[in-house]
Amino acid sequence: MVVAHRGASGERPEHTLAAYELALQQGADALECDVRLTRDGTLICMHDRKIDRTSSGRGVVSTMTLDDLRAHDYGRWHAEMQGRQRSAVALGDPEIADAAVDRYSEPLSVLTLSELLTLVLDWGTPKTLFIETKHPVRYGALVEAKLIAELQRFGLARKPAGSFPPVVMMSFAPSAVFRVRRSAPALPTVLLGENSRYLGYRPTTTGVPAAIGPSIEMLREHPRVVERARASGRSTYVWTVDEPVDVQLCRDLGVRWIATNFPERTKQLLGG
After folding, report:
1. Which residues are catalytic?
2. Given this model, what pLDDT does residue 78 score?
């Protein structure tokens, strides 16, 4: 299954509505987002602690309100970056750079988790949304509490009817994953990173995640983690898989979920 990492973020600005809409149009099986909590208690889709890299503004997410965040453009940085890249490839041809910069003539707003959930639920076919909570953060466990409350509001915190879960919670912080497993045991979870190698209990145990999430670098070094996860009843989510040789490695090992910045290209490599 192909997961669009921050949307189709190789082609559109990450964590924007444009990136997720493109990923869905390209046939991604699932979407991935990071969430952070604003000063006024709104969960937004944002990877970094600050908005400096991905917006026209500056500031720390946790000290800003949603209105503060909406005052900035979250698209032009990506177009300008692509313009510089294409310009370099074209040996300074200004028309290529200008075409990239002009792609986002309208400002792109910060995306709330509520807006992303609405997009996924309104889509014509079932999709899974992988939601990663970031830690350490100013508001600590409140992030997971707000997440569960939001999922309950959408009716997504209960056990899914089929084998295609609508939402999966993820984190690099074991404490965050365990909090969700205790508070919403029907919600599938993934423990990301190096810690996932050392899980020794079956996923049915309270507080233990149902899947592991190694990076592609970790998978190259420890390919047997997939087999060990399968033996304990867990599936595997690998990030961030963009190179064809890595896509093939994941396929050969039987990885369940591949997170990629290029969902369409990855689907094609998998024959989907």
Report:
1. 5, 47
2. 81
